[in-house]
């Protein structure tokens, strides 16, 4: 029997991993084998992996299916070393960037341009919505005085589609009327 899948998005560096805790508990309760894609993604902490190895929960890494207690120990130490090396390289790269005068964090150059394009996109979408509402002005105005639900029902009965080609709802009628003011 295949047990449920537990997906963790936390770093292998962190010890507080709720999905991993749930998976381990499930394995303890059912006697299931924990299957992980890669040993170094399970954890990059040698002590954690050794504790897991000694916990009684059997686990298998798909990238190293033939692993035994010795290879798990060796791979745990290698994974921890790689984690430390990554940390050192990252710190060195950030320090070098800072020394070159690079501003770290915050908005990057060009962010204002991107925001302007996004605003233009919103403005264009609003203009298109107003044009579509204008095309349906006569059908909508003929139904003024009815409730929004009654208007939506009548527009649907008359085969008048929304700007997206779907059926009318009270909310869609309300929005279309607001665009016509």
Task: Please explain how this structure is put together.
With 181 residues, the chain is mostly helical. The chain is elongated. It has eight helices and two strands. Helix 3 packs antiparallel against helix 4, helix 5 crosses helix 8 and helix 7 packs across helix 8. The mean pLDDT is 83.
* Range of helix content: 55-70%
Which blocks of ≥5 consecutive residues have pLDDT under 50? none
Question: Based on CA inertia axes, which overall geometry fits?
Answer: elongated
Provide the β-strand percentage band: under 5%
Q: How is the largest sheet built, in terms of strand order? A: 1-2
Beginning-to-end CA distance, first to last residue: 62 Å
The SSE order reads: HEHHEHHHHH
Write the layout of secondary structure elements.
Layout: H1 18-30, E1 34-36, H2 39-42, H3 46-54, E2 59-61, H4 69-99, H5 111-135, H6 137-141, H7 148-157, H8 170-180
Helix pairs in contact: 3-4, 5-8, 7-8
Care to give the gist of this entry?
By secondary structure, the chain is mainly alpha-helical.
Please describe the structure with a list of short key phrases separated by commas or semicolons.
single chain; 181 residues; mainly alpha; 8 helices; 60% helix
């Amino acid at each position: 029997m295949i047990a449920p899948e537990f997906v963790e998005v936390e770093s292998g560096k962190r010890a507080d991993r709720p999905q991993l805790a749930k998976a381990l508990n499930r394995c303890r309760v059912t006697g299931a084998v924990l299957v992980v894609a890669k040993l170094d993604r399970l954890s990059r902490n040698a002590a954690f992996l050794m504790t897991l190895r000694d916990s009684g929960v059997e686990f298998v890494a798909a990238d190293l299916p033939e692993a035994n207690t010795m290879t798990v120990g060796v791979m745990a130490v290698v994974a921890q070393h790689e984690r430390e090396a990554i940390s050192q390289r990252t710190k060195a790269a950030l320090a070098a960037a800072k020394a070159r005068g690079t501003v770290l964090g915050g908005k990057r150059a060009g962010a204002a341009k991107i925001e302007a394009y996004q605003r233009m996109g919103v403005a264009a979408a609003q203009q298109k919505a107003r044009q579509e509402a204008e095309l349906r002005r006569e059908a909508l105005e003929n139904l003024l005085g009815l409730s929004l639900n009654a208007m939506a029902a009548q527009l649907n009965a008359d085969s008048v589609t929304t700007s997206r080609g779907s059926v009318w709802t009270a909310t869609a009628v309300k929005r279309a009327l607001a665009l016509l003011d």
